[in-house]
Amino acid sequence: MVRRKPSLMATAGLVSVLLFGCATVPYTKRSQLVLVSQSQETTLGAQAYQEILSKAVIVRNPEFVDPVRRVGERIARAADQPDYKWEFTVIDDDSMINAFALPGGKVAVYTGIFPVAQDEAGLAAIIGHEVAHALAHHGAERMSQGILAQIGAVGLSVALGGSNPQTANAIMQAYGLGAEYGVLKPFSRGQESEADHIGLILMAKAGYDPHAALGIWERMEKLNEKVPPEFLSTHPSYSTRVTDIRRWLPEAGGYYKPEDVKNEKLPALAALEEGADHGEAACKRYARTIDQKAVGPQGQRVFGEVIARTMELTPQTVARRQSESGLSLGQVAVASALAKAGAGSFEELSAAYKKQNSWSAAAKNDDKVIKEALGLLRATLVAARGPTAQQSRGGK
Q1: Sign of CA dihedral 25, 31, 33, 36
Q2: Is-contact 395 365, C-beta < 8 A?
Q3: Which own/partner pairs from 343-349 qualify as long-range (CB within 8 Å, at least 24 positions apart)?
Q4: Could you give the residue numbers annotated as active site?
Q5: Angle ∠(229,235,239) on CA atoms, nearest 5
Q6: pLDDT tens sequence across 317-348
Q7: How many CB atoms lie within 10 A of CB 242?
């Protein structure tokens, strides 16, 4: 194979890219290479946001939505990005201990992170960290590095125009996004540390005591001993993070002006399951979430195995129940959980549900039994993202 020397045009193109692609990260003043304009980045962020929301279960309960919007709007003012069109969404998924922010001000918080945040100051630390990724253009930076590695300077404008399917896929990967739920590929450790630093400043500017960030990482570390949250996947070690935050606290304190800021406790996840419907909405949302996660034959197999372990069944029994009942896998999980909790046999429950379209009615509105079943369903979702399930998927 004959290797051709780079043409003069290609060399000139590469030089121009390196000259005009330099940017500076706010607050940390780190130099970075960003080949994507802010308008392009904002457009890509909005597209990715809509794709994720189209596959998610959105929480409408004001008890959950109001604190996220209240904190988010204060962080947005601190971020000082007048061209951003901020949106704050709560996604119903107890098994996802995560949140994300995309360019243009698109922010989503999963219900699974509420117990870690505990109060609005903790939520400010989390949202501030995620917004910092967007302000620092971390996704665009990673995408720029990938584009240069894959296609070089020649053809860059075509790639950024979105006409190259492979580059469009690289764009999604650069922002850590995929067709399933939320942030799948985390940022580098350096970028995560930088987001910790900037996020601390943002929460302080927003009127929240930056010391609250230490509590977040302490609680994250405890979770990490069981099932590593996505939020921690490539962060520096706990000791390094705490040391860094303590080192940055005096700087953040210079931005902190205590104001009349609400720091109320966040609602417990059980609030999503309370009400006069005897857990009906909760049963249906768990069934819907499992169906949306169990994508394709591989997803069906993994979730079938997890449901079997949680409900003390065999995978063959779960498969048979799905085949014979005509229910979706998520609905099989609900009926199996109710059966294990003592509401009746699987066959009785599935028949009653198909007749009445109501899980609570099938369980005779027995709140104690339904609550136990909901605990089993939550455990199923958590187990589906644990080490065993990851090995079943072929992960590490």
Answers
A1: positive
A2: no
A3: 343/369, 343/370, 343/373, 346/321
A4: 130
A5: 105
A6: 999 999 999 999 999 999 999 999 999 999 99
A7: 16
